[in-house]
Amino acid sequence: MDWLERQVSKAAREAEAGAALHVALQQTAGFAQWQVLDVLKPGPRRVARIGLGGDVVIAKLYRDETLAQMAAQELRRAHSDLSGPTYRVPALLEHAHGLLVMECAPGQPVRDALAHANSAQTSAILRAVGHWLSAYAAPQVQVGRFAPGYWMDIAHGYMNPDMPTDHRRQAQDVLARMNGLRAGLQDFPVRRGITHGDFADHNLFATTDGQIWGVDLERNTQGPLALDIAHYLASRAGRFIARDGSFYGTPAPEAFALRASQVIPEEEWAALVPFCLGLCYVKHLSRAGEPQPRRLMAARHWCDQLG
After folding, report:
1. In this predicted model, what pLDDT tens digit does every residue of 167-223 receive, in sequence order?
2. What's the angle, vertex CA 112, arms to CA 108 and CA 115, rounded to 5?
3. Which residues are 41's β-sheet partners?
4. How far is CA 289 from the centre of its chain?
5. Which domain holds residue 161?
6. Is the CB of residue 81 less than 8 Å from the CB of residue 138?
7. What is d(CA 21, CA 101) in angstroms, rounded to the nearest whole number?
8. Between 20 and 30 A from 252 (CA), which of 14, 32, 110, 224?
9. What's the CATH number where 54 sits?
């Protein structure tokens, strides 16, 4: 699919999502007069900014009401637990018929904040990101035992026949090296708790006064916190490596700043985060329908650092 075809397809999906959200709003008490301002994600969870007068909130429409109920429950739980002044999640305003309406997270995505940050600001933002994850996971954190075979099965399951050839070769190299780490991680002590599931630079918002807001919580589950950390680092993979050095394919200063937040013990950073990063790279490489140089570079750096 060339660039023009992708743009046409995107426009069609956004139009469909906007129409579906409009219908859902019409059927929701208190929101029938609200208008879809712009579609942020066209699906399968359709997300848009909606407005009435000067008020703007977020609407998210699920195809499955069960998923909507789970997302609403998690939003309420997290909003109650993260009620302090610094680490926050948006408040749920309405839930009806697969539609969730919630307040907008203030500030800007961490991805954009980091693009304009100096080194001191970057360190402060990343430490705050780590503290947000600690606060989010805190209610159910416990020490468990890592089962690398389970995660290796998941990694192999990511492989698909439509991967570009160079992606397939690189993913196979990553899998081989992950397998080499497997024996040393069997029953490794690991901090487990509520994990975000899509802990990435576009799902975190930073304000100028130091607040961090987390959004898109519906993929949350119980698991190793190291996996959320790896997922975040993988969202930054390939950026500025030549300039700043690499931590297994991710920008070293950002990794070290996140490490300083002490979400997990040093032993997990040294042994478990690299393995989890490998899992993320296999997933990213398998999803791409066409070559992705940044993802390939990050995975190659990961392999090179393992030696």
Report:
1. 999 999 999 999 999 999 999 999 999 999 899 999 999 999 999 999 998 888 889
2. 145
3. 47
4. 20
5. 108-306
6. yes
7. 11
8. 224
9. 3.30.200
